[in-house]
Design goal:
- The chain is mostly helical and 81 residues long.
- It has a single domain, classed as Non-ribosomal Peptide Synthetase Peptidyl Carrier Protein, Chain A, CATH 1.10.1200.10.
- 60% of the residues lie in helices and 0% in strands.
- It is built from four helices and no strands.
- The longest helix has 17 residues.
- The protein is globular, with a radius of gyration of 12 Å.
């Protein structure tokens, strides 16, 4: 997963200017955060990263870096299987 590209995809999903989302950004504090972007984030992760993570795992991720770590953990698990 290209992390810089993922940040841009989050900005696009949340309809923010490129560079708004940073690794240390608190996800729920990003402009545009809401129920629709939450569902969109689930779909983005599934479509772009090829992994399905639970809504609870997203909500437990405080920062974008936390979320990326969860995604990468799922990617590693799927490659090991």
């Amino acid at each position: 997963m290209d992390q810089a590209d993922f940040l841009l995809q989050i900005d696009d999903l949340f309809e923010n200017a490129d560079g708004t989302a940073q690794f240390d950004s608190v996800i729920k504090d990003l402009p545009g955060w809401g129920s629709l972007t939450f569902v969109g984030l689930i779909a983005l992760i599934d479509d772009e990263c090829g992994v399905a993570i639970s809504p609870g795992e997203i909500l437990a991720s405080v920062t974008v870096a936390d979320l990326i770590a969860v995604i990468e953990s799922h990617l590693e698990s799927s490659q090991a299987a």
